[in-house]
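Following up on my earlier message about zinc ion. Here are the inputs again, as you asked, copied directly from the submission form:
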Amino acid sequence: MDKIEHIGIAVKDLEKSNKLFASLFGVPHYKIEEVASEGVKTSFFKTGPNKIELLESTKPDSPIAKFIEKKGEGIHHIAFAVKDIVSEIERLKGEGFTILNEVPKKGADNKLVAFLHPKTTNGVLIELCQEIE
Ligand code: ZN
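Thanks, got it. Here's what our run produced:
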């Protein structure tokens, strides 16, 4: 795994949170993207070398809606950049981690993504992401 690519934060109201994080960081979000297959609308901020993703649910049974129902708003996942997501998934499976989607899927921000089950990572949802060339 390489560097932290971004940190994902689950929010109830993207428009409100875009304003909140813009005043927190001193810069506005630089894009909004909906991933219909995941039932999520995302926005992205850059703070220095760091990237923050806000996630709002667009349907009641989406993973983000369920997360907020259970835990409330807050940090949802940590995403790590990988060069070869397929071989990284194989390596992590070999180490005993549970991968939520063994076939990488198209995520926001032009990435192929896969998630590790938080039950096998001390409660932290880990996202692997590989830039689509
Ligand atoms: Zn993410």
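One observation from looking it over: The beta strands are 4-11, 31-35, 40-47, 50-57, 74-81, 105-107, 111-116, 126-131. Hope that helps, and feel free to reply on this thread.
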